[in-house]
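Title: Comparing notes on inverse folding

I've been comparing how different people in this forum approach sequence design from structure. To keep things fair, I'm posting one structure and asking everyone to reply with a full sequence. Here's the target:
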């Protein structure tokens, strides 16, 4: 699992916007928030993504870029993002390679194999992990205010 103080693994993933997002091309201007969630259209995941939405303006003022990440498809992400008016892109780790590289892939969760653990990584301008929160319990959402505080420390 990627740890605080380590360089975040680079990646390229498709977004709900039909673009490919490469982490190394996003670095350099401010903190990056990578917020992994389990599934589109589920209760805790919706709350997690909407809490980030509700605090997005503050994160933007701190210069942060925000990305939601799950193993759902880009098409599913597009519908989920539109339904909840999310102002940040959702990235599809359909092949599960990025979740695996970050150490946040459940081998099995209930009846599902290979879905992302609910987690948050905050990277500095150079791509070094400065904050990490990972839970084994898919019913526990990250603290959106704690994420904002950590981003403020890097701004």
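Reply #1:
Here's my take.
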């Amino acid at each position: 699992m990627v740890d605080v103080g380590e360089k975040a693994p680079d990646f390229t993933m498709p977004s709900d916007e039909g673009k490919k997002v490469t982490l190394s091309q996003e670095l350099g201007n401010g903190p990056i928030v990578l917020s992994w969630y389990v599934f589109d259209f589920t209760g805790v995941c919706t709350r997690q993504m909407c809490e980030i939405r509700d605090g997005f303006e503050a994160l933007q003022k701190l210069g942060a870029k925000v990305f939601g990440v799950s193993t759902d498809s880009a098409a599913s992400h597009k519908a989920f993002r539109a339904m909840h008016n999310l102002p940040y892109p959702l990235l599809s780790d359909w092949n599960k390679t990025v979740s695996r590289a970050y150490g946040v892939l459940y081998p099995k969760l209930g009846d599902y194999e290979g879905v992302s653990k609910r987690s948050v990584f905050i990277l500095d301008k150079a791509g070094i992990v400065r904050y990490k929160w990972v839970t084994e319990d898919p019913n526990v959402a990250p603290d959106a205010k704690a994420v904002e505080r950590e981003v403020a420390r890097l701004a």
